UniProtKB/TrEMBL annotation:
Keywords: Oxidoreductase. This is Gfo/Idh/MocA family oxidoreductase. GO terms for molecular function: nucleotide binding; oxidoreductase activity. Residues 131-279 form the GFO/IDH/MocA-like oxidoreductase domain. It comes from Anaerosacchariphilus hominis.
Length: 383
């Protein structure tokens, strides 16, 4: 079997995550990468053991050996690169968000539908083994009718006034920050496993740091990575640190969701509780190898990840026996596994993987949530 040849564009935090996930397939090889310039690309390629380096993504797209493109750049570049990659005849795996707005997302979905190519999203949180177990529990009627869904996605990486990232700036990240960055993972995961669709939202946004201190140079250039007051510039912030969203689902269920990027002690916690007419179930991504099952007329349960106890359809997302921890990196491995299965078998194959349509769905949700927060009213999510 010939290996699938892959090119990765962007090597910040998430780029190496993709590279590791690709290499874990055994059926693919990361042949090339591109970065902001050739010097950076060459240094990254050497550090990561990748044969080819390009200082311009257009050069990578023109490489006839590369079959699949992984887009791991800041948000504002996703649309152009995805569009050009499809036009170059490449399969595409894009980081969320798919684009900067609904209009761009719609164009990419249409382009993907017109071409015989796999156009996928890296919406990996749905691929936790125990998330898949919950999905199968819902499908098999274990929860009964779903009444309510509550949850949150909390982080503390922007807890301090001196914490800074391109994600804070709308020209790079889009109209929403916290919702678009991590809230999309929560909504995609919840909608995927419950089969419900969010119909209406009512949102409240908060920006706790009206200004932040932006380093004048990359922190890494400073000895000991310690900066003084003169090394910062005060920058106004107009993206949300925090949001709460009330939800009405299409089956009549209700819900609530909170996202917070200044939550001290919460490193990367996606949490949800699903309340059904038979029982309830909860998942915490900081303890991903177990789920809580709540009962009215009996003891509550903690179900540990163990393929021998899981539904058959969920077992393929667990590579190791019970007691062997699987986490974030494994979700990317399984997401890429499903995408590459589709690449090998063709667009018409019955393979369940996150598609551009799912990325478009998240853009529609974000647009409705942002509008709701701005107008302080319930907003219907565009279909």
């Amino acid at each position: 079997m010939e290996k699938i040849m892959v090119g990765v564009i962007g090597t910040g935090f998430i780029g190496p995550v993709h590279i590791e996930a690709i290499r874990r397939q055994g059926t693919a090889e990361v042949l090339a990468l591109s970065e902001v310039n050739y010097e950076t690309a060459k240094a990254k390629a050497e550090a990561l053991g990748i044969p080819k380096a390009y200082g311009d993504y257009k050069e990578l797209l023109a490489d006839p050996e590369v079959q699949v493109i992984h887009i791991c750049t800041p948000n504002h570049l996703h649309f152009a690169i995805a569009k050009e990659a499809i036009q170059a005849g490449k399969h595409v795996v894009c980081e969320k968000p798919l684009a900067m707005n609904v209009e761009e997302g719609k164009e990419l979905v249409q382009l993907a539908q017109e071409n015989d190519l796999i156009c996928a999203m890296h919406l990996n949180c749905r691929a936790y083994p125990m998330v898949q177990q919950i999905k199968n529990m819902v499908e098999n009627g274990d929860l009964g009718t779903i009444f309510a869904v509550n949850g949150s996605y909390q982080q503390d990486w922007l807890f301090k006034e001196t914490d800074y990232s391109w994600r804070l700036e709308k020209q790079f990240s889009g109209e929403s920050r916290a919702i678009a960055d991590i809230g999309t993972h929560w909504f995609d995961t919840v909608e995927t496993i419950t089969g419900l669709k969010t119909e209406k939202v009512c949102a409240d946004f908060a920006t706790f740091y009206k200004t932040r201190k932006k380093p004048l140079k990359p922190v890494e250039t400073y000895s000991g990575k310690v900066l003084e007051a003169k090394d910062y510039a005060d920058v106004p912030i107009d993206t949300e640190d925090y949001a709460t969203v009330l939800i009405k689902f299409d089956n009549g269920a209700h819900g609530s969701f909170t996202v917070n990027q200044v939550a001290a002690g919460r490193k990367n916690r996606m949490y949800f509780e699903i309340y059904g007419s038979k029982c309830a179930v909860a998942f915490d991504s900081e303890e991903p190898n177990q789920i809580w099952i709540g009962n009215r007329d009996g003891s509550n349960q903690i179900m540990m990840k163990d393929p021998s106890l899981m539904y058959a359809e969920a077992r393929e997302f667990s590579s190791y026996p019970g007691g062997h921890t699987e986490g974030f990196a494994d979700t990317s491995k399984h997401t890429v596994r499903k995408i590459y299965e589709a690449v090998r078998n063709g667009k018409a194959a019955e393979v369940d993987y996150p598609k551009f349509e799912d990325g478009y769905r998240e853009l529609q949700l974000c647009a409705a949530i942002v509008k709701s927060a701005q107008e302080e009213k319930w907003v219907t999510v565009e279909k």
